[in-house]
Amino acid sequence: MSDEAAASPVFTSALDPRTRAMLEAPIAPLILRMAWPNLVVMLLQAATGLIETYWVGRLGPDALAGMALVFPPFMLMQMLSVGAMGGGVSSAVARALGSGRRDDADRVAFHGVVLFGAIGATFSLLALAFGRPFYAMLGAEGGALEAAVAYSNVVFAGNVLLWIMNALASALRGTGDMLVPAGVTCFGVLLIVPLSPLLIYGYGPLAGLGVPGGGLAIVVFNALGCCYLAWHVLSGRSLVRLKRGPLEWRFFADILKVGALASLTSVQTNLIFITVTAVAGRMAGAEALAGYGTGARLEYLLIPLSFGLGAPLVPLVGTNVGAGDAARAKRIAFTGAAFAFIAAEAVGLAAAAAPAAWLGIFGAEPEMIAAGSSYLTIAGPTYGFFAFGMALYFAAQGAGRLGGPLAVTLGRTAIAIGGAVLAAALGAPLWTVFAAVAIGLVFYGVAMGALTAAADWRRRA
Question: pTM of the prediction?
Fold first, then answer.
């Protein structure tokens, strides 16, 4: 341990064994030990979404295009509740435990559930009230618009369950417990894989619901996962507990000072996807929209991949920053980011080498295959930079320092959206839009690396 940590008022001998391991254990094995259950289950969860896309795609191109339009706002809910605001809860819990404040960690968990419930309900109301004009604004019409609205109304009706479930899971991750949240997600995979086609197409006397059936399967899982995690925490089986009491602004602030800034990053990431989807649709039609949307789903797979490797960095970095060991926190951050780069770059290079193998799973329309192949060939080789930057973003959440990462994300957003809009205005080929996305990803990874190397993560009073 560094001299600064040794001088800290927090003595590791007085801490929980799990917290002490985060302060002392060898870094690379520690990250992999904490990441593997999370990583496996996140990838399984992503695969579940792809399976759902496969079943919906069999309903026709309108259903696939409609689902592609709902995917960005739905992914935004997951990114906010798991990675952004969820990271705020994990970071606050980890920093409290790292500095020996067990009572504050319990209060943070309770305040997180209250806050997330309110946020989830607010987004539900907005989506149900304004979903149709929003998807029409993105260029949807006819059958694609009806499919988008039908799917959106179901998944957003149960949105509050998603948020509360992830508030509880994030509090557990803040203690270093990755297994229980991962186990809940694994249960969701086992549930949704058979339930989604059953509800979409029906079986025997059970009538198929079509596109909304896929959304209903997700809502059922969120309800069951929420109930189990609430029982697990309330029964005293976790290191952190829901300590009820008067609501205090300082606990909300401890979550929001990380979560609010991180949320802006998530919003910008989805804004890029939404804008490029709309530009592709207007430049080349619904088939191109479906092609880019299907191809970019592979980019969204990098988010659970980055989360699987990056989520452990939040409690690890937060605990070490809380204990005053900034140097070890930096080593943890770059070790995790290197793992993320290697994994994502392998995926991107494989997609660039054989894009039709991926796209052909979901459809066979030539225009869809052509647009998706163009995107994957150009953007695939840059995926490692995105995952590298995302992992360092999770590390910055743990440190409670998100001003710089937000500025970097603004730069990436300006490059991707500005380039896409400029290409459309100049009448340039569709591939130039995808090139702007790729340049933005490279900028994101390189800039996040430089920013993290120069950041001051020393604990402040």
Answer: 0.70
